[in-house]
Amino acid sequence: MSATSMDGLLRLRQHDLDSLNLVHLISGIDEDLVDQAATPCGASTTLCGYTEWVSTQEPSVTLGWDWQLETRPTSSRVVRLGLPRTNVLVVSGERNPLPWEESLEVLASFIDNFDWNAPAFDAVCKRYSS
Fold first, then answer.
1. Residues 34-81: pLDDT tens digits?
2. How many alpha carbons lie under 13 Å from residue 32 in its C-beta half-sphere?
3. CATH top-level class of 10-35+44-128
4. Which residues have CB under 8 Å from 116's CB, separation 6+?
5. How is 49-117 classified by DSSP, letter by letter?
6. Where do the domains of the chain lie?
7. pTM (2 decimals)?
8. How far, CA to CA in Å, does 33 sit from each of 26, 30, 76?
9. What residues does 53 pair with on adjacent strands?
10. InterPro entries annotated for this entry (predicted)?
């Protein structure tokens, strides 16, 4: 892995992502998007939120992203919305930084390939159940 640079970004090669051990920090619901008074009774609503994950090793990696509850007749799950927020800039094997949007796309693919959905949604359910 790499150290944080003067610009505050942690530069990681794409294959270094595989060795990241991320743990759940916090998840919540975007309450400002929910206007219950404006939603007619019986109307379909959308539940959206956010989740933040951090690495267990140094230097600290942070990854956050938005999610949406996707409901189907037989199941429900949360899915990532948009690109992540992070302190990571992915670099090539030669350590050349990828363009920012391309780096975020690589990180989005990384997110989609690890089991974050259930821990994030479970945390939301526990947080708002009281």
1. 555 565 666 566 789 999 999 998 878 999 999 999 887 887 888 999
2. 1
3. alpha beta
4. 22, 24, 51, 53
5. EEEEEEESSSSPPEEEEEEEEEE-SS-EEEEEEEEEEESEEEE-TT-PBPPHHHHHHHHHHHHHTSS-H
6. 10-35+44-128
7. 0.83
8. 19, 6, 20
9. 24, 63
10. RsaM-like
